[in-house]
């Protein structure tokens, strides 16, 4: 056996890297296995939102991520004639998490920032060029075997194993977990470009709902732009990837670009039947895949990591029962299903190829737009049933807002990574919770905003989970009692360190 760890993570994409960073900050002994030695050099994901930037902030890479990102412009659905059918978002919103609502980014740059962050953590070991090969579950640990690309073989003992190893997840396959298929399957040609003159390009993100060829045109990170073209019946991946095909589609945009990558992706909705088997869990694309129309694929995986990180930390460091991990899928699956179903609904709007049906769609959407409809219902929040939340509390599961001070300071940086109980009196904290008064000097730049939140909601206190969702709001004593009842604190485990 090569080593013993609290958590072994398979896969060092954005989800695995974020999970490793959050666990590393919590003091756990972490090993990451990644079969590739280099960051994949071309972008795949293109979008993340304010909540994910808040996770990057917690992981210590917010400034670095900003260097590879730009605030997303508006997101419009247009028909073939250029009429705006729907505006999915404007470009000027501020998210509850204290950051711009949405960003377009260059994935390799953010992945390098995450790896640099992990390199600063002595309790996080990254083994590149090493693939997961087998697992053996025991009552108190998992034995993990790996194979290096130089022929070497290793085995590790770990309290928990997390597969963040992509759509073809070997960890998921080793557990024999099947996938539920939403029966939405559309092939698209994705073309990533570097424009010679960015001023030629749209400054917003577009879905062109043209039955002749549904097309997506979106910003990427600084200096890049992406087009996606739906394959028409009879077209093959080989044909659309041939030289000249993508160029011919770009001609109508009248732009001068260098094609950096062309690839055919199948846009589909899949979700794993189980996300946990004992001490083995899966996250990100290993657990769910969705069409890109809502821009929530990578975001959902990073939310998985943020959800798992604090729960694994509490099991290892605070002695919480492993039953806490049952809440992982209960909370995250509801959010993922919301986003898959939203993305499929959006995709069906975009992917209409029949001209008559497209004309009917356009007329209905234009009429709805003229009627100034009410905002669509919010989707993507955590599932409350089976989750770690105050029962029957209308505020439970909401993102707790992050105020930003006049000098740019942010609430999360003023407090620690534990859960927070915030009220006007303060009190004794615990190993898992920081009880802080709004009058505490550390909260001075944010006191007005926090007091206003308590007043607006008519509550004495709010208990905020480490992933910054509201556990509940009300009387401080009741919140503390219910929090500790739900997480079931016991004697902490001995660290492997």
What does this structure look like?
This protein is 30% helix and 28% strand. The chain is of the alpha+beta class. Among the domains are: 3-68 and 104-178 and 270-336, FAD/NAD(P)-binding domain, CATH 3.50.50.60; 411-487, no CATH class. Strands 1, 2, 8, 9, 10, 11, 17 and 18 form an eight-stranded mixed β-sheet that branches. A hairpin with a 2-residue loop joins strand 17 (276-277) and strand 18 (280-282). Helix 1 (14-25) crosses helix 2, helix 1 packs parallel to helix 4 and helix 1 (14-25) runs parallel beside helix 8 (297-318). The longest helix has 25 residues, at 326-350.
How would the blueprint of this fold be written?
Elements: E1 3-10, H1 14-25, E2 30-34, E3 47-49, H2 50-59, H3 62-66, E4 69-71, E5 75-79, E6 84-89, E7 102-105, H4 107-119, E8 124-128, E9 130-137, E10 142-148, E11 153-163, H5 170-175, E12 179-195, E13 205-209, E14 215-219, E15 225-230, H6 237-240, H7 245-251, E16 257-272, E17 276-277, E18 280-282, E19 288-289, H8 297-318, H9 326-350, H10 355-370, H11 411-414, E20 419-423, E21 433-437, H12 447-457, E22 461-464, E23 470-474, H13 476-487
Parallel strand pairs: 1-2, 1-11, 2-8, 5-13, 11-18, 20-21
Antiparallel strand pairs: 3-7, 4-7, 5-6, 9-10, 10-11, 12-15, 12-16, 13-14, 14-15, 16-19, 17-18, 20-22, 22-23
């Amino acid at each position: 056996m090569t080593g013993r760890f609290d958590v072994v993570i398979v896969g060092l994409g954005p989800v695995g890297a974020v999970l490793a960073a959050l666990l590393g900050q919590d003091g756990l002994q972490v090993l990451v296995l990644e079969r590739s030695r280099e960051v994949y050099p071309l972008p795949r994901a293109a979008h993340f939102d304010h909540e994910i930037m808040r996770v990057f902030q917690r992981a210590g890479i917010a400034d670095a991520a900003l260097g590879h990102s730009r605030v997303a412009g508006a997101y419009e659905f247009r028909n073939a004639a250029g009429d705006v059918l729907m505006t999915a978002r404007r470009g000027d919103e501020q998210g509850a998490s204290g950051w711009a609502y949405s960003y377009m980014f260059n994935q390799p740059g953010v992945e390098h920032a995450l790896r640099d962050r992990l390199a600063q953590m002595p309790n996080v070991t990254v083994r590149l060029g090493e693939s997961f090969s087998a697992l053996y579950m025991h009552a108190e640990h998992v034995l993990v075997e790996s194979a290096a690309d130089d022929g070497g073989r290793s085995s590790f003992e770990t309290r928990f194993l997390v597969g963040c190893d992509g759509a073809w997840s070997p960890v998921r396959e080793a557990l024999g977990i099947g996938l539920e298929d939403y029966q939405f399957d559309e092939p698209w040609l994705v073309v990533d470009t570097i424009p010679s003159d960015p001023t030629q390009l749209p400054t917003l993100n577009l879905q062109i709902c043209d039955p002749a060829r549904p097309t997506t045109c979106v910003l990427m990170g600084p200096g890049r732009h992406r087009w996606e073209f739906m394959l028409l019946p009879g077209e093959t991946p080989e044909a659309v990837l041939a030289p000249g095909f993508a160029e011919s589609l770009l001609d109508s945009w009248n732009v001068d670009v260098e094609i950096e990558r062309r690839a055919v992706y199948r846009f589909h909705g899949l979700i794993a039947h189980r996300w946990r088997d004992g001490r083995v869990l899966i996250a990100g694309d290993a657990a769910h895949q969705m069409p890109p129309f809502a821009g929530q694929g990578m975001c959902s995986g990073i939310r998985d990591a943020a959800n798992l990180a604090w729960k694994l930390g509490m099991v290892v460091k605070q002695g919480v029962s492993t039953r806490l991990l049952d809440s992982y899928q209960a909370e995250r699956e509801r959010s993922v299903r919301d986003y898959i179903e939203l993305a499929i609904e959006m995709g069906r709007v975009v992917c209409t190829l029949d001209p008559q049906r497209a004309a009917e769609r356009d007329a209905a959407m234009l009429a709805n737009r003229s009627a100034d409809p009410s905002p669509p219902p919010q989707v993507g929040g955590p599932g409350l049933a089976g989750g770690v939340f105050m029962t029957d509390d209308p505020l439970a599961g909401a993102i707790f807002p992050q105020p930003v001070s006049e000098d740019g300071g942010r609430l999360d940086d003023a407090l620690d990574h534990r859960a927070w109980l915030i009220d006007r009196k303060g009190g004794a904290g615990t190993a898992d919770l920081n009880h802080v008064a709004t009058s505490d000097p550390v909260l001075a730049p944010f006191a007005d905003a926090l007091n206003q939140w308590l007043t607006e909601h008519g509550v004495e206190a709010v208990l905020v989970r480490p992933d910054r969702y509201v556990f509940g709001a009300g009387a401080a004593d009741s919140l503390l009692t219910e929090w500790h009842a739900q997480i079931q604190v016991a004697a902490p485990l001995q660290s492997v360190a």
